[in-house]
Amino acid sequence: PAAVPNTPCPVPPQLEGLCSFLQLSTCPEPSLVRFCSWLLPLSPALSHPSAAILAQQLFLGRVLALTQPPSRHLMAALTSFCSKYSHPLCRVLVAAVLQGPGEGAEQTKLLCELVEECLEPHSVQLVLSQVLEVPLSEKLLPVLQAVLGRQEVLPPELLDLLVLTLCQQAPAFATSLSFARLVTAVLTVYQSQVS
Predict the structure, then answer these.
(1) N or C, where is the chain less crowded by C-beta within 10 Å?
(2) Model confidence at 119: pLDDT above 50
(3) pTM value?
(4) Contact indicator for 54, 15 with CB cutoff of 8 Å
(5) CA of residue 44 relative to chain centroid, distance
């Protein structure tokens, strides 16, 4: 994009219209990388609602449509956007992936990669709280494992909810090796807080 003068950021309805006009949801992925790198130095930074709209327009359709690993351009754009707007990205992207139908193997792998390599600690906590809001499934266990792999300090209420969820779901996952590994990880990482 060409240089833009220092003008106030558009409000969300204007931004949706601008995204549609620029066809950002279907722009080529190399252009997506350039657009995201152009966004980062903007001052003032985008508001949370504006960043969420951009996350939806730029990434949601592409991520939900994945049937194979994301291209390096898509990962570069996601990583770039995440470096400044990880919270709005999680609000939009994680919620949609968690509520999506079917296995969504590529989407789950992408979430794990974002958790492991890109998200700030407060966004990792947001992902955990979002996962715990939906019925636990085999598809979500790797995401929880990725969250635990970060070994972030969790607020007591979030850790309590995690432990309670695992206790309640244990009978349904009695034969799941992934679930057993997850419980072991919780007991290892948070052994001083789990009785």
Answers:
(1) C
(2) yes
(3) 0.81
(4) yes
(5) 24
